[in-house]
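Thread: zinc ion complex, take 2
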Amino acid sequence: VPSPPKVLRVALDTPLRRLFDYLPPEAPVPLAPGLRVRVPFGRGERVGVLIECAERSELPLARLKRVKCVLDTEPALSADAHALVLFAADYYQHPLGEVYAAALPARLRAGVALEASETHYRAGAPARTRLGPRQAALLAALAGAPLSREAIEARAPGSGPTLATLLKRGLIESLEVPAAARALPARPAAPGPALGHAQTSALEALTAALGRFAPFLLAGITGSGKTEVYLRLIACALAAGRQALVLVPEIALTPQTVERFATRLGVPIALLHSGLSDGERLAMWRAARCGAARVVIGTRSAVFASLPELGVIVVDEEHDSSYKQQEGARYSARDLAVLRARAAGVPVVLGSATPALETLQNVAEGRYLRLELPERAGGARSPTLATIDLRVHAMNGALATPAVLAMERHLGAGGQVLLYLNRRGFAPSLYCPGCAWIAPCPACDARLTVHLRERRLRCHHCGASGPLPFACPRCATELKPVGQGTERVEETLARVFPGVAVLRIDRDTVRGRDGFAAAFAKVRDGSARILLGTQMLAKGHDFPNVSLVVVLDADQGLFSTDFRASERLAQNIIQVAGRAGRADRPGEVLVQSACPAHPLLAKLVAQGYGAFASAALAERRHAGLPPFSHLALIAAEAKTASAPMAALTSLREQAGAVAPVRILGPAPAVLERKADRYRAQLLIESPERRPLKLALERIAQLIEATPGRSRVRLSLEVDPLEVG
Ligand SMILES: [Zn+2]
Ligand SMILES: [Zn+2]
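Output below.
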């Protein structure tokens, strides 16, 4: 028998970047990394995760406290998920305890049992007094194996009060026994449509990789049948006795998506997303962990779910920015999915019609294998794209005359029209023609958006709102809304297309999963003819009757300080364009811009996303930007204006990075004041990962040691998605 370890090193959910040493419990128990332990901490107790057993501590053993109890007999996470948590903490320079906390359901962090249990009852001490006939009968029934309340009720209906009485008298005792994870419903699998040629060869390549690590990009235009390929691949993994993990963007986890997987695969499916209660989340998580659920469909944090028999991972719409966690442990679920696949030795499929430039570069460098679905299923033709030059045409509000004419044509032919504008509200600013005053947010360096129907001004950065003023507070001139938001376009449409049903889809009009379902039902049954919306429309919903798409303002994305803005714009344009057209009616896409000759926009419109991506990658290579370099962002925010810059300047001096790592800044954030806090940032850039990681380790230590952390909040983000 090996002697018990002297020290247990435990990860706790605190912002401190270290493990906490404890003595093992007095009574010897099995110990292994990944077990949850309850430990004294400060004046209270915490639940942490045992990370390693050690022989020594930096502290004298006499000063260490003892673990109160070991909660588990086996690790909470499967080995590959545990390894992923350790990797993520190291790579993203985030405290391990916080990453582990993000990976576990809230109730497990509070210490509930790993496995579901159920109360059973059995006869206890023999009775010394006379019993009634019902009591005697119940005791006789419970003399053998313990029974659940349901089983008792089935044998002796109405025996609840008797059970309670006998429990109170100690004649019956209760005990907790493991319950089979509440099985999720499964339906018989339905057959799918026949596969096209490209789908068949993609599926062959994918199934051949089952049983080993292999990363794939499944590049397929909208409507090319990517989901069908996922379903067949998953069915193969299931047939081999394995589980599947499917990651989807937050917004795509609709009842229709789930329904499609459930009816086709015929196995119990666990869903993991932010809309679950703690109890539901725990039940789903347990079903995945014990193997009762064969498929897990979830949003980004599901990448950490425990799947003991994981056989394949799918990341749908891999370019979607909702895979990036923007608070706390700032990880990319897409990137972690690839690492998890490697740890588990399984294939991973990243699917998209508009792959991220990083992913395309991984293909170019031979790390990922590209599979192509170049055609729309059923022979539908891809839509044609053209630009409308906003400088030369008369405007009806946000609509240039050629767009109005095209809309009349398509509506007249019975088609639906989709208008895309990534700006909600009535107008992005309220302006005084008398003195040029513009309504500012009191808490941000931003203008307030006019919401005319509610008669309010709202800040889209901090959420502040106030009543809509009629006259200028400085000179009393009547104020004018300037610019176009979806609410204003809706008003224009009512004027230009009277009597045509318009459906606006943005965060002001559609809320929650049910709101989506209701809105999309109106689109599908044709009761809405013109759809108008923000990027909510670009995400994964099919509108088969839409024959014309108008992108109202492409210029927002072309001239941003964020180097990824043009990539996001191109992805959004192609994603909304993908909603247009079908077999008998090819779609048309019109992109309104005041600079149609912009090289990236011109490439996108004339040659498509692939040509755009090549040109954008060439620009990034030239500028030394990701994926040709690696970035980290140190953000500082504070209530006083000078504190963030001062903190970052001092951090930069102490960090003293060595080449090839470059430290850029500090500089005030583009929106320097947000929600009454001042913000600045420092960029750390390196052509290679290794030196960047070394520099970040040092900076993370400095951040932790920075005095006055409470006044200036410093955060570190590796591979930031939004810069500027
Ligand atoms: Zn004025
Ligand atoms: Zn604000």
